[in-house]
Design brief:
The protein has 110 residues and is mostly helical. The chain has a single domain, classed as Tetracycline Repressor, domain 2, CATH 1.10.357.10. Helices cover 77% and strands 0% of the residues. Helix 2 crosses helix 4. It is flat, with a radius of gyration of 16 Å. The two termini are 27 Å apart.
Length: 110
């Protein structure tokens, strides 16, 4: 969320590229991103096997984290409308804490 907040235009350009079918970065998605995700999937599966987190589909966890963390940049106008202005530092920090608590709480071993 910090990165998307610090560089909202980069986040918006990236999202736009993906929504258009990734005509410029498809090779990156096929190679580097796919490899990165597979390595992180293996880590998540190890945590599941060790009982550290409950059984989940790692890719869906990644999709939720990516969507949540980029929303502040990609929907900044919507958020500013609902909040009656851009998120201040204190509100942004509360939002970050809530996202972290919600995601970690949702995958924590029971």
């Amino acid at each position: 969320m910090d990165l998307a907040r610090a560089m909202p235009l980069s986040s918006q350009i990236s999202a736009s590229e993906i929504m258009r079918g990734a005509p410029v970065i498809q090779d990156f998605l096929d190679a580097a991103l796919t490899q990165w995700v597979r390595s992180r999937e293996r880590a998540v599966k190890k945590w599941i096997a060790a009982g550290k987190i409950r059984p989940i589909e790692p890719k869906f966890l990644f999709y939720m984290m990516w969507a949540t963390t980029q929303h502040t940049a990609n929907a900044a106008h919507e958020i500013a409308t609902l909040e009656k202005g851009p998120l201040g530092d204190e509100t942004f920090e509360r939002a970050e804490r809530q996202v972290i608590e919600t995601i970690l709480g949702g995958v924590a071993a029971r």
